[in-house]
Structures are given as structure tokens and as C-alpha cells.
UniProtKB/TrEMBL annotation:
<dbReference type="Pfam" id="PF12779">
    <property type="entry name" value="WXXGXW"/>
</dbReference>
<feature type="region of interest" description="Disordered">
    <location>
        <begin position="125"/>
        <end position="145"/>
    </location>
</feature>
<feature type="signal peptide">
    <location>
        <begin position="1"/>
        <end position="23"/>
    </location>
</feature>
<dbReference type="InterPro" id="IPR024447">
    <property type="entry name" value="YXWGXW_rpt"/>
</dbReference>
<keyword id="KW-0732">Signal</keyword>
<protein>
    <submittedName>
        <fullName>Uncharacterized protein</fullName>
    </submittedName>
</protein>
């Protein structure tokens, strides 16, 4: 009973006596553990027009970036974060944005891989042309006048 009174008084004091502030809350309910993955470096993302969001490419985790948030499906659990480095919080599949929820992981990966190959092909074509121009016009750094 005393704990509840102190808790209520503390909450009331925080709400009434402090200016608006941003806070981040991680809630663990039951036996849910935080995810067992860590992302040390910013992933490379590919825009996948067929999906309507960005998907990471070439990293240890498949990550979705949509509307300023990051989503990971790890061990059949969905996690969300406002930063690719975490903290990651479990989110129920039904609470995912519809744009993500409507696609299966297999389809997401397939679309991502197709778009990645297109991207690499365009980049290789550009690099090849740049090298050709440099060899053809060696004194002007590959620029044509």
C-alpha cells in the first residue's frame, strides 16, 4: 500500500512539476529478453520501389527502414527501433505498418536482391565508362571538353 502511494505521488510530481521532455522507455513483460543481435555499423539500404520501403543489403541482419523507423525479424520475432543501433523493442506482427506486414520475408528478400543486382549493374556500367573515358582522355581526368 505504501509503495502504491509513493508511486502515485512520484508520478503526479513528475507530471505536474516538470517541463515536457522526451523519454525513451523499454518495457520487458514476462520472460522476453532483449534481442541477441547487435548492429555496429550502419547498414547499406536499397530502395525497393515494389515494396515501398528500403531494405538492408550485404549485412548480417535483414533490416527494413520505413517512415524513419527500423524493423528486424529475428528468430521469428519483430523488433522496432528509431535507430539502427537500437535499442530494439519487441513489436507484435499485428502492430507492424501495413506496408511491411503485407509482404512475406521471402518476397522482401527476392525484391531486394533483384533491385540490388540492378543497382550493381548500373554502378559497374558507370565505372566501366568512366575508366574508358579516362583511358581515352588521360590528360583531362576523364572529362571531355
Amino acid at each position: 500500500m505504501k509503495k502504491q502511494i509513493w508511486l502515485a505521488a512520484g508520478i503526479a510530481g513528475m507530471l505536474l512539476g516538470s517541463p515536457a521532455a522526451q523519454a525513451e522507455v523499454n518495457v520487458r513483460i514476462g520472460g522476453d529478453r532483449p534481442p541477441s543481435f547487435v548492429l555496429d555499423t550502419r547498414p547499406n539500404f536499397i530502395n525497393v520501389p515494389n515494396l515501398g520501403f528500403h531494405v538492408s543489403a550485404g549485412g548480417p541482419q535483414d533490416i527494413i527502414r520505413y517512415n524513419g523507423r527500423y524493423y528486424v525479424n529475428h528468430n521469428n520475432r519483430w523488433y522496432i527501433s528509431s535507430n539502427f543501433g537500437g535499442p530494439w523493442v519487441i513489436v507484435r506482427e499485428g502492430r507492424l505498418p501495413r506496408q511491411i506486414r503485407r509482404h512475406r520475408w521471402e518476397d522482401i528478400r527476392r525484391y531486394r536482391d533483384v533491385e540490388y543486382r540492378r543497382h550493381e549493374s548500373r554502378r559497374n556500367h558507370y565505372d566501366h565508362n568512366r575508366e574508358r573515358d579516362h583511358n581515352q582522355y588521360p590528360n583531362d581526368g576523364g572529362r571531355r571538353n
